[in-house]
């Protein structure tokens, strides 16, 4: 198992290989096991608005909607959201649903090249890279914020540091500078 999250006090989700499982938290019974990616492992499951789930692994992202989960927790099903199965040019390290995404699915994706992409309804709207890019050196990332312009990215490196940068305002293709480096960790982050 690579990742998991609890949707509420009743449903849990795990990523194992290229599959996700939905289970009843109370009984530990598996309600659904579904293959999401062939040849890629699921690295993250992120709950979104309107019972949506974003699942990412390797260079792939798929968005699903939890169609039904019965009250007696005997079954569940997933449906691929229209036009939202993405193949990125780099590994996806983090994903963040953004507030104010009414009328379509909107999410920010952080990739291993230290670039953040804004996607809405299956279309790439914006792409903002950090000035410091090194594909082999990005192991992990976290993105925080409620809207595109206030996103903060923390990217872990093999050089035992975390680089911090923000999207902010400006042209989409303009490189953003590193604001801070968190150092002192004893291993790759």
Automatic annotation (TrEMBL):
Stored InterPro entries: tRNA_Anticodon_Mtase-Reg, WD40/YVTN_repeat-like_dom_sf, WD40_repeat_dom_sf
Domain of life: Eukaryota
GO cellular component, one term: cytoplasm
Listed name of the protein: Uncharacterized protein
Keyword tags: Cytoplasm, Repeat, tRNA processing, WD repeat
Keyword Repeat in record: yes
GO terms of biological process kind: tRNA methylation
Transmembrane segments: none
Subcellular location, principal: cytoplasm
Compartments, as annotated in UniProt: Cytoplasm
